[in-house]
Amino acid sequence: MLGKSQNMSDQMTVMVKQMRQEVPDCLASGVVDLATGMLLAVETTDNHPTEVLDLLAGATLDLFQGRTVVMIENIFKERRGISSAEHYFQEILVNSANLTHLFIRNNHNADVVVVVVCPKSVNIGMLFAAARRVVKSQAL
Length: 140
Known about the structure:
The protein has four helices and five strands, in the order H-E-E-H-H-E-E-E-H. It is of the alpha+beta class and 140 residues long. The protein has a single domain (2-137), classed as Dynein light chain 2a, cytoplasmic (Beta-Lactamase, 2-Layer Sandwich), CATH 3.30.450.30. The two termini are 15 Å apart. The relative contact order is 0.20. The mean pLDDT is 87.
């Protein structure tokens, strides 16, 4: 079990590095575990206070599994006759004053969300294409 855990940790480190290399203009990338609300891996061009990184993990948890979000997912599933436990929201794009933040749920583990931060000037299509390619290539 320890070997598998270490392997997953290594995979997360590889994923954040790959995001920084392959996503155009990537300033930071990270992996958040929604089950624990923890930031498991991060790579950034800048130093950020630990409190900010901890808040990123909590904010990601709220975006994907906040009470209202879960209610919306349940209503959509009910109206569409879907009974699976699969989450409805898979990707969320957030633009702040100067940055674009892309949150992608891992397709192998719904509790793992990859976060990518780029300047707001990034080509959104290229951001999505590159980030999806990296997430798909890593089976976390």
